[in-house]
Amino acid sequence: WVLDRAPRLWALHYDSGRLVIARRPGNEAHLHVAGFSTPHPAHCLSIMGWVERSVELSGGTDVAILEDTCRTKGGDECVFSLSWQ
């Protein structure tokens, strides 16, 4: 439920960039943050924490989120892999 609404929540809180959720089979997803004007490593950590806790509050357990690529480390966009039980 939260993941389906996350892109709209992004637009309510930020005036640049967009959040794209790519659902995978089972309990997995990739999150893409593209075009955010001023990325910072702390912001990426904040996103990871928000996603992890949101999935837990929605009933998910054993939540794992990893940063696959990050603009602050030379990537084209920030991409996170998410899985849960």
Report on this structure.
The structure is a single chain. The protein is of the alpha+beta class and 85 residues long. The chain has 2 helices and 4 strands. It has helices at residues 2-13, 41-57; strands at 18-24, 28-34, 64-69, 78-83. Strands 1-2-4-3 form a 4-stranded antiparallel sheet, covered by helices on one side. Strand 1 (18-24) and strand 2 form a beta hairpin. The protein is globular, with a radius of gyration of 12 Å. The model has no long low-confidence stretch (mean pLDDT 91).
Topology, pairings included?
Elements: H1 2-13, E1 18-24, E2 28-34, H2 41-57, E3 64-69, E4 78-83
Antiparallel strand pairs: 1-2, 2-4, 3-4
Unreliable stretches, pLDDT < 50, 5 or more residues? none
Report the strand count.
Answer: 4
Number of discrete helical segments: 2
Distance between the termini: 15 Å
Q: Beta-strand percentage?
A: 25-35%
Q: How much helix, percentage-wise, in residues?
A: 25-40%
Features:
34% helix, 31% strand, 85 residues, alpha+beta
Please give a quick description of this structure.
By secondary structure, this protein is of the alpha+beta class. Helix content is 34%, strand content 31%.
